[in-house]
Structures are given as structure tokens and as C-alpha cells.
Amino acid sequence: MGLCFPCPGESRPPTPDLEEKRAKLAEAAERRQKEAASRGILDVRSVEEKRKKKEKIEKQIATSGPPPAGGLRWTVS
Predict the structure, then answer these.
(1) How far apart, in whole angstroms, are the C-alpha atoms of residue 65 and residue 68?
(2) Distance CA 69, CA 5 (A)
(3) How far apart are CA 68 and CA 76, in angstroms?
(4) How far apart are CA 11 and CA 66, in angstroms?
(5) Global pTM exceeds 0.70
(6) What is the 3-state secondary structure (H, E, C) of 20-71?
(7) Other CB atoms closer than 10 Å to residue 47's CB: what's the count?
């Protein structure tokens, strides 16, 4: 088993276009990010739903304004 060089009459194998190569690298990076984000999570859909629900609740709290005066206050002792 040795190195394989092209025959003298043959041209070099075609190299991928620079834009095509960039697109493939970007696609691979996005796929790795998705896999890393869902690593260890059994049900990805339920986690996404919980995150969206939490964001919706936080948005409602932010738009409702501050609580009225005289509300209950919690203290930890």
C-alpha cells in the first residue's frame, strides 16, 4: 500500500467550489449546534414548549406593569 499519484496524462480531481464548501461547513456547524443543544434531553419538543410558555408568561408580566401598591411582600428570615 503506497501513495497513489495521478497518471501523467490525467488532470487533478475537481475541487469543490468555495461557496459550496462554505455552505457545507455552515450546515455542519448548525447541525452540531442542534445536537449539542439537545444532548441529554429525551423529549426535545416538550422542552421547547415549556420554554415558549415561560417566555409568554414573562412577556405578560412585563406588559402588565408593576403590581399595585399595598400588595403582599415576601421576606425570608
Answers:
(1) 9
(2) 83
(3) 21
(4) 73
(5) no
(6) HHHHHHHHHHHHHHHHHHCCCCCCHHHHHHHHHHHHHHHHHHHHHCCCCCCC
(7) 13
Chain centre to alpha carbon of residue 55:
17
- Alpha-carbon distance of 54 to 37, in angstroms, equals 18
Around Cβ 74, how many Cβ atoms within 10 Å? 4
Q: What cell does 43 get?
A: 423529549
Assign 66 a pLDDT band (cuts: 50, 70, 90): low
For 5-61, the pLDDT digits (tens) are 767 766 666 777 889 999 999 999 999 988 877 777 778 788 889 999 999 999 988
- DSSP class of residue 14? P
Separation between Cα atoms, residue 71 and residue 64, nearest integer Å: 15
